[in-house]
Design brief:
The longest helix is centred in the middle third of the chain and has 23 residues. The C terminus is likely disordered. This protein starts with 8 loop residues before the first helix and ends in a 20-residue tail after the last strand. A hairpin with a 5-residue loop joins strand 1 and strand 2. With 268 residues, the protein is of the alpha/beta class. The structure holds ligand C2E and magnesium ion (2 copies).
Length: 268
């Protein structure tokens, strides 16, 4: 039988092709869902926004992590199909999200650098949000830095359009790419998410603490909302409380969760 992690190269490629053929079905037969994970203010403990993370429950392979199929969709050039679906679902969920996490809660979705190739992206995404009775101001678009910097000029222009239409923009996984610093000044941003790798052994290593502190100071000096990703334990939270105005996201507050599936279709 075909195993998802089959490691012979030909088999792997064939598998990827089959997987992409399954994708269209996946949307129409309810295999794709969103899980939400809060970004929490470390000072107040309040949830300010939640990140929508896509989940594909494949009938044969069960849960396929986004890292295993999103890059394939990007290569195929059809990622905007996913992005539009995710934003539409998130917009449809907004009322229930606010019911659960608090009235002002905003929703973050991940967009791909490939999405930025579309000239009409900003109007298209705004249209989706308005269709569901929402406003772009209710949403944060997270862009991964490594993907973004390939075409600086185009990226900057598209991001500017998104922001003029009212979306907030976050630079995701900050610190993992090569042009981190220039991205911070070139792109019109509202938020920066410090990659979870910065937290590795941070409690035991003073040099790592210095790098982290400087990174936070840099982000805050540019007046960016600063979110620390991948916070897993109480000690790290305690250590991070020395900083003001930091937000955190991670398993410490919980795994990404789906909204109650019973209510999925009742809102119409
Ligand atoms: P990301 O945007 O950086 O999302 C955060 C990832 O870190 C999520 O993995 C989340 O489950 C995981 N995470 C959260 N807290 C912790 C923690 O405390 N420790 C650890 N080790 N991990 C934590 P996930 O859901 O597997 O998503 C992986 C990546 O896939 C995302 O990274 C994002 O780049 C991409 N992705 C997810 N959903 C979408 C989507 O709808 N569209 C696009 N284009 N990409 C998506
Ligand atoms: Mg993200
Ligand atoms: Mg991230």
């Amino acid at each position: 039988t075909l195993n998802f992690y089959d490691n012979t190269v030909g088999e792997h490629q064939r598998h990827q092709q089959l997987l992409m053929l399954d994708l269209e079905d996946a949307f129409t037969s309810n295999q794709i869902h969103l899980a939400y994970q809060p970004k929490v203010s470390l000072n107040s403990g309040q949830t300010e926004s939640v990140e929508a993370l896509v989940r594909w429950y494949h009938p044969q392979f069960q849960l396929i992590p986004p890292g295993d199929w999103i890059p394939l969709v990007e290569e195929l050039g059809s990622i905007t199909r996913v992005t539009r679906w995710v934003l539409g679902r998130a917009a449809a969920d907004l009322a229930r999200i606010r019911n659960r996490y608090g009235v002002g809660t905003r929703v973050a979705i991940n967009i791909s650098a490939r999405d930025l190739a579309l000239p009409e992206l900003a109007d298209s995404l705004e249209g989706i949000v308005r269709h569901h009775g929402g406003m772009p101001q209710d949403f944060i678009l997270e862009i991964t830095e490594t993907a973004v910097i390939e075409n600086l000029e185009l990226t900057t222009e598209r991001l500017g359009q998104l922001r003029r239409n009212g979306f907030s923009l976050a630079l995701d996984d900050f610190g993992t790419g090569t042009s981190s610093l220039s991205a911070l000044t070139e792109f019109p941003l509202d938020e920066v998410k410090i990659d979870r790798r910065f937290l590795t052994r941070i409690l035991a290593d003073q040099n790592r603490q210095k790098v982290f502190r400087t990174t936070v100071e840099l982000a805050q000096s540019l007046s960016l909302d600063t979110v620390v990703e991948g916070i897993e334990d109480e000690q790290t939270v305690q250590w991070l409380r020395q900083f003001t105005d930091l937000k955190g996201q991670g398993f410490f507050w919980g795994q990404p969760v789906m909204l109650d599936p019973d209510q999925d279709e009742t809102q119409g």
